[in-house]
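Supplementary Text 2. Reproducibility record for the structural model of the 258-residue chain.

All settings were left at their defaults, and a single model was retained for analysis rather than an ensemble. We include the record here because the model underlies the residue-level annotations in Supplementary Table 4.
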Amino acid sequence: MAFLEGKGGRSPSSFLIEAREELSRYETVLVRETSVTDIIPASDAFEFSSADGTTGKASKVLLATGLVDELPELAGIEPLYGVSVHHCLYCDGFEYVGKPVAAFGEGDKGAELAIMMKHWIEDVVACSGGSEVSAKAARKLEEHNIPLRSEAIQSMEGSNGELKKIVFRSGPDLPRAGLFFSTGCHQASDLSKRLGCRRNAKGGVVTDPVTEETSVPGVYVAGDVSRDVLLVAVAIAEGAQAAVAINKAFLRRDGFCD
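Retained model, structure tokens:
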């Protein structure tokens, strides 16, 4: 995303830098900038190994590995992503009120996204990238007065991260100030799958409403790995919720509460 929701336009990178600085103040917290490559349940603990060769044991595991957004394979999109091309309408949609935008997604995905955007933004064009939309989606687009460009996209053109126009392989160019896409996402790590954590239909890890644990005792999740509302503010809240649950589990283990 271009900006961190709830933080007044601050970039995600600056948020991470500040968060790591805050963690460095705590002597009991050790930060390792490496990837955990494996976690194996052992007796009353978990054994883990990392890409830098670090190994160890942990009583509890909190997975906050997040998701990877699948960027559309469109020429010229990478320099624009996060500035004028976005994956989250709720994070960045309000910035485009009064501006011309496009919604991209193959099949009905782009049409469905365009209809959502129409609630906030007047000038919306749906782009299906050369694929057909269903008759039902086409009717909905017509009902909401949303044009459809079904031609394949040749390139995205702009400068300094600002989208200027969408060039199609056939037909006229489409001047746009922004584009939102719906192409899906996937888990950034397969650790939850390898641990055997149960998932729901969306691919998110399911947690117990009482203990906050996953289906694997001692394993907790926070953030987009849960596939709940995919916002940083929600991820922070889930982290706090998981921390409280882990602390209560330790209190029960050590006989301080039932």
